[in-house]
Design brief:
Blueprint lengths: L1 E7 L19 H16 L6 E5 L2 H13 L5 E5 L7 H9 L7 E6 L3 H10 L11 E6 L12 E7 L16
Parallel strand pairs: 1-4, 2-3, 2-4
Antiparallel strand pairs: 1-5, 5-6
Length: 173
C-alpha cells in the first residue's frame, strides 16, 4: 500500500512586503499551524518517508516547520512543478518516486489539492483550508501504478480540529 498526505501551506501574510505571489511568506498563524500539524503526524505515528513541497516560500516554510516540529526523518524535495500545478502534474511527480517509499507528504496549493482529493478518491468536493491535511491510501505496490479514482480518503484534518493536549487523536490511526 502507498499513501499520500496532502498538506496545504499555512496561512500566508498578505500584508508582508513581497514582489510576487511566489514570495509571499507565512503569517504568524501559518507558522503556528505548521508546527501543530507536524506534531500531529508525529503523535499519530504517520510521519512521511518523503516530503515534496512547492517552491513557493509559504509552502516551503510550511514543510520545513512541520518537518522540524514533528521530528520527521524524511528528505525534503522542493519541486517547482507543484506551484500552479494540475492533478495530472501531481500524479506525474508521484509516478517518479521510488517504490521503497510508502508515505509521501505533498505540500501545495489550492485549488489543486481539493481537485486531487476529488479526482483520486471519487469523493465529494472538499474545501481544503490553509494548513489542512488529508491522507489518501492506494492499494498499489509502485507509485507508477497510481490511477484516478482508486484512492481511499482515510482522514482530513484542519488545525483548529486538533487539540494536541487531548487523547482523542489516537483513535485516528
Amino acid at each position: 500500500m502507498k499513501s499520500i498526505i496532502l498538506f496545504r501551506h499555512g496561512k500566508s501574510d498578505w500584508n508582508a512586503n513581497y514582489h510576487e505571489d511566489h514570495n509571499r511568506p507565512l503569517s504568524d498563524r501559518g507558522v503556528k499551524a505548521a508546527k501543530k500539524m507536524g506534531k500531529y503526524l508525529h503523535i499519530i505515528q504517520q510521519k512521511p518517508n518523503l516530503v515534496i513541497s512547492s517552491i513557493a516560500l509559504r509552502a516551503k516554510a510550511t514543510a520545513q516547520i512541520a518537518k522540524k516540529y514533528g521530528d520527521w526523518d524524511a528528505d525534503l524535495i522542493l519541486e517547482k512543478r507543484i506551484y500552479e500545478s494540475s492533478v495530472n502534474e501531481l500524479i506525474n511527480i508521484l509516478n517518479e518516486q521510488k517504490s521503497v517509499i510508502d508515505l509521501i507528504c505533498l505540500v501545495g496549493h489550492q485549488p489543486t489539492l481539493s481537485s486531487f482529493i476529488f479526482e483520486m478518491t471519487n469523493s465529494s468536493w472538499v474545501k481544503f483550508q490553509t494548513a489542512a491535511m488529508a491522507r489518501i491510501n492506494f492499494n498499489i505496490e509502485n507509485w507508477d501504478e497510481l490511477k484516478i479514482g482508486e484512492g481511499k480518503l482515510s482522514w482530513l484534518k484542519k488545525p483548529k480540529e486538533i487539540d494536541l493536549d487531548s487523547h482523542d487523536y489516537y483513535a485516528i490511526r
